[in-house]
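Appendix B. Chain record.
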Amino acid sequence: MLGRLKKIYIPWADYVPELGSIAYHSRRLCFNHIGYWWETIKSEVEVMDLETGVKQYWSDEGVKQHWSNEDAFSVYKLRSFILSDRYLILIWKNRHLTAWDMNTLQKRTTEITFRPEEVCIEKDKVVMFSPSSDPPLPINIWDLNANRVHEIRSSRRVWFWHIDVDGNEFVTFEINWEKHPLEVQRTKWTLTGQPLDRKHIHLSLPDRVKFSLPRLVPKQYTFGHKTVSPLVSWPGYDFMMMDLIYDHDVDKLSLRWIDRALPQKTTFRRRLSQVLTPYISYHWYPYFNRIDICNAASGTATTHAYQLDRREMVTFEKSLAARRQPKI
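Structure tokens predicted for this chain:
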């Protein structure tokens, strides 16, 4: 079911932000304000409590100490941010990260040696991950309680991982997609980077699915003891999408074929999709103004049309006009 739809209109300084500039968690909406590409960018985010309407602004002026005037524009600005029920994580382009405890107003900062493709948070652990790097970069785990960063070092590319904070375990998966059935190395680590256990498993594909190296959608969703990550692939001219699923309780990795009648641009553009449960996912298709809701448990998909408001049309037109402006 689509559920109740609530619209909130946010001032974007006459420009629609890059995708990924909005985060939602626990009835809080987090976003940042940006202007045209040549204007000064506010290096802060706004958090709005949807229940009370109270707004708060978060930044980190201390990051300014780590950059020089000549590279200020390109370095001292937000790259992205993530939100949990307690923490707001600001990721800066100079590889610094700021963690705000929104309950106690306590701030922590750290610096890593690379720009992560994916940053996510599970309880008080921040995971920084770059799955497409070659050679493989270490996975960094930032312990916010101890304010220390630990490394998980794997000799081969890690495609998928799961974190169990309470059990002090981090699970990684290295997959050989050229073999059928797939050859997988599963390794368990402590959250401080010590190896615990390693085993090799074989993962069978559905009978009708045969594809080579897929494109990993660099986004994972953890629901308690289960973690889900989408995969997309183009074998020949066929478009396919699957879910990679790990159940930590039974230590089982599986692939789930998603037989969705969805356009390619919907499923491949991960930031237009959201996985709400291990089985339910929403996919926004802007070209036809519709939302596709997929139920992997029942193998069904439902489409809902979306009627744009006049204010949304005006914003879209301003966005197109801004992008057509010549660069100086």
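Further analysis of this model is presented in Appendix C.
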